[in-house]
Amino acid sequence: MSRITILFLMLCLSLSMQAQQLPPVFGLKYDGKSFNDNRARSYLTPLRIVWKYDGNGKLMRNPEGLLEKGNNGQSELTDKQVCIMHSTENEYPSILLDFGQEIQGGLQIVTSAAGQPAKIRVRFGESVSEAMSTAGSQGATNDHAMRDFTMELPWLGVAEAGNSGFRFVRIDLLEPNVTLSLKEINAIFTYRDIPYLGSFRSNDERLNRIWLTGAYTVHLNMQEYIWDGIKRDRLVWLGDLHPEVMTVNTVFGYNEVIPKSLDLARDITPIPGWMNGMCSYSLWWIIIHRDWYKYQGNRSYLKEQQAYLTELLQLLFTKVDASGREKLDGGGRFLDWPSSPNTKGIDAGLQALMVLAFQAGAEMCAVLGDTPLAQKCTATADRMKTQVPDHNQLKQAAALLALADMLPAQKADEEVISVGGAKDFSTFYGYYMLQAQAKAGNYQTAIDNISAFWGGMLDMGATTFWEDFNLDWLENAAGIDELVPEGKKDIHADFGAYCYKNLRHSLCHGWASGPTVWLSEHVLGVQVIEPGCKVLKIEPHLGNLEWVEGTFPTPQGVVSIKHKKGADGKVKTEVKAPKGVKIVR
């Protein structure tokens, strides 16, 4: 074999290994397929001991040593600062740790030389109550991710286990007459190591926390695909995805997880199937693609959707009767869970959602050069707008009708959305309620609703926003970060409905991130006028805020914005934009 041939083969092998990111020696004998994981891992020490059972000190020594930073997960022969757990014939020690923040990941346990191999039980919890529960009771489950399981630990070694969403971990020693020497217990935080390009700060620290909590909630769900929840609903749900996509646009800018997830939903749902088995979620797929294109301006990617988009729109035309009424059949008629009992309101919401989907379809077809299809979408939307069903006092439906220009926004707000303040808001559709209030010009009430509703979760110890929430839950309730005192309600275990009853309820759900987008769009005042953020309109609405500042990511770079209210009530604005971004006021 010639030297040139050998060099060529070595080059081919090198390129192959680069594609798979495998060591060359491994690739020489590996005939299977590999995929790359684009996530980072960090190891976190616990911040506090919430509870322990130590038999009055007889079963456990130096538990506080677990709060100290170890030697990066390395076992050592020394036994300094180790925690010793010892079981007897009848008593077994337990400890509950708090890592301070909800994370996605697992657990690393490092043992030292003082003990022996041992079997333990591990319980993850998004709340203290969940970590203290047993799978199968009070709604606690191992659905989607294992959060209650047993594992064996080595002597003088390291064991890793778990893949769930959690903040709290309880560990129980299971076997009698065993000594377990714990050098470290670290949470394995698995996440995309990406910068927060967008930001929001104001003189209201509560709003600042809400903005950042919404951003962090979505960040946790940006795993290999974008999920709805990191404990439960670790799936690509298309309707739920819209607020998450808007949060990614607002905080992180372009990220591969969005097109990867949208393409997955498309590829596993051939027409005439409905995405996730729900007709409304196929409508959301259309709306999401319009908004992703609007913010990112990638026409080539939009072009890749044209065949499926065309086929889906043609299917939707058959679901509208001659008068303009939607006739969606097959797949659940779903807006969000809290609206489920109000079937009349759901009918109104779906009518408006179809109008919004056809409007989005018309915009994309025009960009793609399919003028006849764009015109048909517009004509169908206009025909549907002549039929305005009764919202039946459902805030979700009233919001969609207002956004679709089927009901005056001010009327929808005054008569439905603002009634009772944030009462009957929902974590998912609350975003659209806020958008309708903005359209009605009622910015201060929307800010107040954000503070009351999403801030109410923070008051209960939340570090991420929940699958569902109701202001009524706050009465006499204990926070998620404490053992529930006698006479108090357990805000995690005592509430929830539908598929998320009690402890099955997810406390990290990306669809709840709407305020992050809303505050950047309407208070910081960033509105995208041309695709790819080539033209931005800056129109702040500070309400009773004194100042606000922040940043906004665009494909051309980050825009910096500052607003300050003067003594005369007028707002002075400073904007710094990268080349290629035009700012209008």
Alpha-beta content class: alpha+beta
Write down the overall geometry: globular
Q: Note the gap between the termini.
A: 70 Å
- Please count the helical segments: 16
The low-confidence runs, each spanning 5 or more residues with pLDDT under 50, are 4-20
Largest sheet: 9 strands, antiparallel
Fraction in beta strands: 15-25%
**Percent helix among the residues?**
25-40%
**Strands, total number:** 18
Return Rg in Å: 27 Å
| Nearest-integer average pLDDT | 94
Fold and architecture overview:
The chain is an alpha+beta fold. It has 16 helices and 18 strands. The chain is globular and about 75 Å long. The protein starts with a helix and ends with a strand. Residues 4-20 have low confidence and may be disordered.
